[in-house]
Amino acid sequence: MKFGDIISFSRIGYPHQVVYTGKNDKGQDMVVHFSGQPTRRGGATVKENLLMCVVTKDYKVEKTVDKNSKVQPEKQMRATVDGLLKSGTGHYNLFNNNYERLASIIRYGKPISPQVRKSRSTP
User: Fold this and answer.
1) What is the pLDDT of residue 51?
2) pTM (2 decimals)?
3) DSSP-assigned beta bridge partners for residue 97
4) What was the pLDDT predicted at 95?
């Protein structure tokens, strides 16, 4: 995996995304993601954690959006991650500020959420 890769895995009925941020000083894979309970007061916040503590065994590197959106240079992705870890992204919201949008802001520099688009267009 490379810095900025979006990792997709299933959790409680729908796919979640995290962003790969490389190895820590112990050589362990790290990811950035929303952590916490989105439905509780205070909501989920942006955190960096070990890949193995966040992601299930069955995951894939998601590059579907790469076909239609330009991937930011690694330097810009790192700056985005650093900023998000310092200031967060506001309160988690399933439709407007979710895992998928967090990952796309880091990778593409803009919020993209095909899952939300798909769910809103389904009768």
Assistant:
1) 95
2) 0.84
3) 93
4) 73
Structure token pair of residue 61: 């590197």
What's 22-44 look like in SS3? EECCCCCEEEEEEECCCCCCCCC
Per-residue model confidence as pLDDT tens digits over 36-74: 665 555 567 888 999 999 987 889 998 989 999 999 999
Local structure of 68: helix, strand or coil = coil
Q: Supply 23's token pair.
A: 């190895």
**pLDDT one-digit tens code per residue, 101-116:** 899 999 999 998 765 4
CB 54 within 8 A of CB 46: no
Radius of gyration of the chain (CA): 14
- DSSP-based three-state secondary structure for 103: helix
Round to whole Å and give the CA distance between 63 and 112.
13
Residue with the two structure tokens 């769910």: 119
Question: Cα(33)–Cα(38) distance, rounded to whole angstroms?
Answer: 12
